[in-house]
Design a protein that fits this description.
- By secondary structure, this protein is of the alpha/beta class.
- Helix content is 14%, strand content 31%.
- The chain has helices spanning 52-66, 89-101, 193-196; strands at residues 4-8, 11-15, 21-23, 28-32, 70-74, 104-107, 120-122, 124-127, 130-133, 145-148, 154-159, 162-171, 175-177, 204-208, 213-217.
- Strands 8, 9, 10, 11, 12, 13, 14 and 15 form an eight-stranded mixed β-sheet that branches. A seven-stranded mixed β-sheet has the order 1-2-3-4-5-6-7, with helices on one face.
- Helix 1 (52-66) packs parallel to helix 2 (89-101).
- The radius of gyration is 17 Å and the shape is globular.
Length: 228
């Protein structure tokens, strides 16, 4: 797979076609939305693209590829909608095995139960010039560069007489929104208000492909709803 570089001031991130980002200077791997709540859902077919267990395997491969010093996980599912105590012991053991190779920092909007999942839980994480949030805030501080998950951005582009809809990264000079690493079916179109309001001066999309990313300006895109 071919990762694509993106620069924020003096820092370079590598956007991976799996939907993860890697910060080489600090050896930090960043992923958004493992969709842990699906582990207790009978609606998920085992080992389908929507199965978090598939995401666990992809995450482990990335850990062995990039050898990160830590993993920042955005959009941790906690609180009323989901309790980590509902995760099966086998799935918890998979997470713990990955965390032994690179410690976890979960950036979560909700409360958490200490000791149930491996790693540290925080509401906001600051490191270098970056601020990591569960959900993007519309108003950034004067020097903030924000990295977030939550919105599960998607975009649509014309390809060979049909439209192709894919998850995507969305970015400008001061903000990066990551796609759902677990391949969520639902998500926000980059043209719709929840995402568009975060990028009043325009945005760039990095559409996930099988082996590489495809970069487009907003005006080159259609809506996900247009996909046949």
């Amino acid at each position: 797979m071919t990762a694509a570089p993106i620069h924020f001031r003096d820092e370079r991130l590598m956007l991976d076609p799996t939907g993860a980002a890697f910060w080489p200077a600090k050896r930090v791997l960043i992923v958004a939305d493992l969709s842990l709540e699906r582990l207790s859902s009978i609606a998920v077919s085992p080992m389908s693209a929507a199965d978090p267990r598939v995401a666990f395997e992809r995450l482990l491969r990335l850990v062995r590829l990039y050898r990160p010093s830590k993993i920042i996980l955005l959009g941790a599912q906690t609180g009323a909608r989901f309790s980590p105590r509902r995760i099966h012991q086998d799935d918890k053991a998979r997470l713990e095995a990955i965390a032994r190779e690179a410690p976890f920092i979960w950036v979560s909007a909700g409360e958490h139960e200490p000791g149930v999942l491996p790693g540290q839980f925080v509401h906001v994480h600051r490191e270098g010039p970056f601020i990591f949030r569960h959900e993007a805030t519309p108003q950034l501080g004067p020097r903030e560069i924000e990295i977030s998950g939550f919105h599960r951005p998607k975009a649509s582009i014309a390809a060979r007489a049909r439209r192709v809809s894919r998850p995507c990264f969305v970015a400008d000079a001061r903000r990066l929104v990551l796609p759902a690493f677990a391949g969520a079916a639902e998500g926000a179109d980059v043209r719709d208000q929840p995402i568009a309001r975060l990028f009043p001066r325009g945005l760039r999309v990095f559409l996930l492909g099988q082996e590489q990313l495809f970069s487009f300006a907003l005006e080159q895109l259609g809506r996900v709803a247009e996909v046949a």
